[in-house]
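User: For my dataset I need records formatted as: sequence, then structure tokens, nothing else. Please produce one.
Assistant:
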Amino acid sequence: MSLLDFQRALCDLTLNPAFAGSVLRQGGSRLDGYELTANEQVRLLAVVRQPGMSVNCTLARANRFAPIADAFPLTCSLLKPHLRPLLDELWSFHRPDGYQLGSEADAFAGFLRQKVASGEMNFTYAEEVFRYECAIWDLIRLVQRSALESAPAALEDTQVTVRFGHNPRILIGCLERDELPPNLPPGDYVVRLILRGDSLEVEMAD
């Protein structure tokens, strides 16, 4: 059991830089949640003191962030000033479910949905941009599932409507260029996502 806990602790230290930093500052007491021998604890303390540990943590964060950025690029662009603490909070409790890191985008989406429900997603434009990308992400997964089931015909003319409270042409255009949007007057706008086979069309009504 000790070896498994040693491996789990090493994985947690790599995936969670905040945890690694707390072990570096506070010592072995932060490892009390693992069943470790004295030698294993000493080895882990030596690991977090190594200069290369920060590189390992950085690479792990980059690998975990890649599927999130692929699935929610506009949301990540909009939340850029706040993204690091949000990811730190998410990764403080969420562990990957495998080496392929396939759960990261869904975990991020679930995490932000909780923030929206609790009123904590009070960043300008964040809720409507995130809602838009969630709709796209759901359609992408629908295409992926359909491809696995060899049923593309079932996707013909699948439509989803997303409402915006600000002009989506300007808002999405800025974020696609990785620019922060200007102050936009409120309004009521409709964006229609149409899935034809494996092709996604976006229609923005004026």
